[in-house]
Each structure stands twice: as structure tokens, then as C-alpha cells.
Structure prediction request, 381 residues.
Amino acid sequence: MKMEWMAWTTPTAIFFIVIACTLTVFTVLAIKFPEAPRMGILRTETTRGDRLFITLLGSAFINLAWLGVVGANQPYALMVCLAYAVAVFRWV
Amino acid sequence: MEKTVNQKAWFLILPVLLLVAFSAVIPLMTVVNYSVQDTFGNNQFFWAGLEWFEEMLRSERMWDALGRQLMFSAIILAIQVPLGVFIALNMPKSGFWSSFCLVMMSLPLLIPWNVVGTIWQIFGRVDIGLLGYTLDALGIPYNYTQNTFAAWVTIIVMDVWHWTSLVALLAFAGLKSIPDAYYQAAKIDQASRWAIFRYIELPKMMGVLMIAILLRFMDSFMIYTEPFVVTGGGPGNATTLLSIDLVKMALGQFDLGPAAAFSIMYYLVILLISYVFYTVMTNLDKKGG
Prediction:
């Protein structure tokens, strides 16, 4: 299949594959192990899916902030994102 | 009793999911692909990495457009929401005049964006427009093509004219759903008009009002056609809102890479604010019953 029309690159393809895999894993988890929403520090009920969304959205902003303030050195930003993800899944 | 959760119902939304995949997900992925590359046309792309994102984050042009956009959304929300609620509170609650008001107020909502823009573009002209001519005759300096303040007033009044009805209609629907018993109880307690509004009407309207605010915020944050038709983003860049700037960059200058980086950031801001509104709305729903 020709993919030129979408102007694919290897990094962006990996990026979307990782997101698609994450979504699949979380869907399977939600079906296999249904869970009750819980109240976190944001004072709102969240499920695993909500926490994933907050993590992904927050990570996008962390990466942008890193790019704007520190400069293009994304592996470090990803480490911050990882810490953020752990915090979100633990406390939100 | 706990409700049974049947996850199989999700399969029913599969057709919509496919449609959205073609209309939204694939274009979005293409934009992400564009944002890390440079092109001079001819479908040839060169890897640029995060260069465009860095450039956009340091671009005064983008921050200025974002500032103008936030100011525009804040102003129209600050006017439309209280005005819409005020209109809804003062509308006849039943009978012929109630239906008449509803129909009249729906009219601006039915007019396409570009037509609204054209109406106001002509209406505000000093030579042939009723508004522009009258203001000019009264000695009030008004020229939306040259004066920044006049241009801003025009696009704000235009948006208020076009969309306040939506807030009013939603608020009216919220008011109509309040059972009479609440008002009777308030009467027995000899509650003041303000107390009735503050403790009965406003809390009961909150759900629909949040929907109205969310809709108006998203719509105003993405507004393109109306200001583009009226002012074209001018005078200078005074009314160049985010989407106008984005189109200039993407189609006017054919800077697909920077424009793609710009639109991803634009999208993220909308996503964040919409998610916050959505969360607040669902929390309100849960509190309400």
C-alpha cells in the first residue's frame, strides 16, 4: 500500500503504533478486569481510561513545555512524563 | 441495585468510529506527519524533527494570535452567557408569545456563517451600511477596516447577535424543567427574586449552562468564517484569530510544517479545555441526581 499521501515517517509511525497498542491493552484490560471508578486528588471520579487520557494529554504538554523552555532534548522530557504517568495512575 | 454493564453495546458505535476514522483520525495523523517534515510541494518531504514545534513555541506571531483568540472567547462568553440567561429569565414561559420568541431567536442560528459575515460586513460599512452610516452621521468615528477598536466591536457584536440565542434557548430549556413545586416552596418562604434565581434557577440550569458554555467556547475558539469575511484579520493583524492565522500560514504561505505544528498545539489546547469542561459537566450531573 502506498503511504506517501499521508507523508509517513518512521518516528511518527512508531508514535501512533505505540498509542494504538496502549489503547488496545487498556481496552482488553477494561473488558477482562472491569473496575469501579475511584475518587482521586482532582476530586473527580476516574477510571483507568480516564487516567490514561490525562497521562497522554499531560505528556503532550510536558513535551511542549520542555521544548519551549529547555530545548529539543526529548528523552529527558519523556522521563518527566513517565514520573507524571506514575503519579497520575497512583493518585488521580 | 447495581446496573448491569453490557460492554457489547460498544459495537453499535462501530460505524461512527469508522466514519470518524476517515474524517478526523486520518487527517489528524497526516497533520502529525507534516509537523515533523518540510516540503516544497510535489509531495516531497524532508525530515525536520521538532524544528517547527520549537519555531512555533518561540514565534511571537502564534502567541499574539493565541492571546487575541483567548481574549475573543473570554469577551463573548462574558457577554453571551449572562445575556442569554437574562433573556431566558424574561421570556414568556408559555402560550403564543413563548413560541414566537423561540422562533424569532432561532433565526440567527439558522443563518450560515459566511452569510452572517456578509450581513455585518455590509451593515457596518460607512458608505452604504445602516449601522456604519448612522454612527458616522452621529459623529461617532467608526470604521472597522481602519480602526482596531471598531473592528473588535464589530466582530464581537456580530458573534453576540449570532449566538446569544443558543445560550438563551438552552437556559430556557433548563428553566422549563424546574417543577412548579420549587417556586411554590420559595413563595411560602417569601424568598426574594434574587434568592429564587440563586438557589433554585441557577443550580437547576447549571447542567445546560455548562453545555452552552462548552459549545460557545469551542465554537468561538475555532471561529474563522465570520471575522474573515468582515475584517479579513485586519486592520493589520488586529483581528487575526488563531484559525485565520493558521490558514494564512498553511494555504497562503504554503508552510505546511509550521502550520501543522501550530495546529497540533491549537488542537491540544482545545482538547484540554474541553476535557476540563466535560469533567465539570459530568460531576454536576452526578451531583444533580
